[in-house]
Amino acid sequence: MRVMNIIHDSVVDGEGLRTVIFFAGCPHFCKGCHNPRSWNIHNGTEMPVEDVVAEVAGNPLTDVTFSGGEPFFQAQEVCEVAKRLKALGKNIWVYSGYTFEQLIASDDPCKRELLRYCDVLVDGPFLLAERDLTLSFRGSRNQRIIDLTTKRGMERSF
Ligand code: SF4
After folding, report:
1. Range of the domain at 86
2. pLDDT digit string, tens, across residues 58-76
């Protein structure tokens, strides 16, 4: 899979102390994007699933956040990472430019499966007109912090 960067001990990418994986590739092209270099998947470094998992597992004090870029752009590979990190007991937040409704209606089963391994989804594109610097963990007012653990089982396709 293609990865832009992995950082440890973040307190701004979800609750608590988190290791953040910034995946490469994004199809949303939001105006005012915080990381436009991540749009091109070729700007990332190729990393095997095992190496990504080992990097996160090497920090036992942190939970994990999938960011980007668009984590669902490489849903099959990211799902494999999520599955293995969940088995290690990690709490997983995922950011996406897609909305929750778009993801659960997706034709791609890997996108829906990835949702199943995550605990929290921060959804929707960054909208410059909705930007709000006072918000926690998100950049614009349209983005929602969704507890997937309470949604699970209530949605037929998720
Ligand atoms: S979804 Fe995120 S990474 Fe992609 S363009 Fe929008 S702000 Fe940038």
Report:
1. 2-151
2. 999 999 999 999 999 999 9
Ligand 1, atom 3: closest residue by C-alpha: 69
Atom of ligand 1 nearest to the CA of 26: 4
Q: What's the confidence (pLDDT) of residue 153? A: 66
Specify the number of domains making up the chain.
1
**What is the rounded distance in angstroms from the CA atom of residue 107 to the CA atom of residue 93?**
22
CA distance 14 to 27: 23
Beta bridge partners of 54: none
Residue 89 belongs to a domain? yes
Q: Any residues with Cβ below 6 Å from ligand 1, and which?
A: 26, 28-30, 33-35, 38, 68-70, 97, 125-126
Nearest atom within ligand 1 for CA of residue 126: 7
Residue 157 lies in a domain: no
- Nearest residue (CA) to ligand 1, atom 6: 30
Q: At what angle do helices 75-87 and 109-117 cross, to 10 degrees?
A: 20
Rounded distance from Cα 35 to ligand 1 centre (Å) = 7
